[in-house]
Amino acid sequence: MFAARDRTALPRAFFDRPVLEVAPDLLGRTLVRHTAEGPIEVRLTEVEAYLGERDPGSHAFRGRTERNAAMFGPPGHAYVYFTYGMWHCLNLVCETSGTAAGVLLRAGEVVSGADVARTRRPTARRDHELAKGPARLATALDVDRRLNGTDVCLEPHASPPLHVLAGAPPSTGLLRSGPRTGVGGDGAHQPYRFWIDGDPTVSPYRPHQPRRRQR
């Protein structure tokens, strides 16, 4: 199912493509996070694509703001946002500057540095739950707004905070796509979520649930 993981760093040209090409191509790649306690490596198993100002489900749909400015930057950078007043989520910016396209990293398998990840995810009952979901992934990797705008295409020997290795993409027969999790309105039904079929780290799909007004 999976070949040996390739330690070659992904170049900026990898991200300088249409986001719907980049998103499924990120599956099986290795995300590396360098922390003060040591490196953590995650094999990506689930992602979601967001098409910027042309996508009703995207933060950039209504244009550029201080919060989403990193999405409009050059490809190969991180966009980190804070949600629900408690969680961070990590995205990788794609396409050319000004297009605001990005890929949300939803889940992955911690393949190295699990001991470090466990200190940030003490409630995880099993290792396959350490990065099962976008908030859990960011928490396990100690990702917050300090990393917003980080260049993920720097040379690995410089130990940048984040970078992505070629890893081991799965066979095409294992790739699946469907609606994005928790996205409502006009952006609810596009099949922009991609995952590796049968992988235990993939998060469960949940449709958007409108908030009820308090009476």
Low-confidence stretches: none
Helix count from the secondary structure assignment:
4
Compute the number of strand runs: 9
SSE series: EHHEEEEEHHEEE
- Calculate the terminal CA-CA distance, rounded to whole Å: 53 Å
Radius of gyration: 16 Å
Strand content: 25-35%
Summarize model confidence as the mean pLDDT: 92
> Mind describing the biggest β-sheet?
9 strands, antiparallel
| Class inferred from helices and paired strands | mainly beta
The helix content is 10-25%
Give the overall shape: globular
Task: Provide an overview of this structure.
By secondary structure, the chain is mainly beta. It contains 4 helices and 9 strands. Strands 1, 2, 3, 4, 5, 6, 7, 8 and 9 form a 9-stranded antiparallel β-sheet that branches. Strand 2 and strand 3 form a beta hairpin. The longest helix has 7 residues. The chain is globular. The termini are far apart.
Task: Give the gist of this structure.
The chain has four helices and nine strands. It is mainly beta and 215 residues long. It is globular and about 40 Å long.
Protein traits:
4 helices, mainly beta, 215 residues
Secondary-structure blueprint:
Elements: E1 6-9, H1 12-15, H2 19-25, E2 30-35, E3 38-50, E4 78-83, E5 87-94, E6 101-112, H3 114-120, H4 134-140, E7 162-167, E8 175-178, E9 193-196
Antiparallel strand pairs: 1-7, 2-3, 2-7, 3-6, 3-9, 4-5, 5-6, 8-9
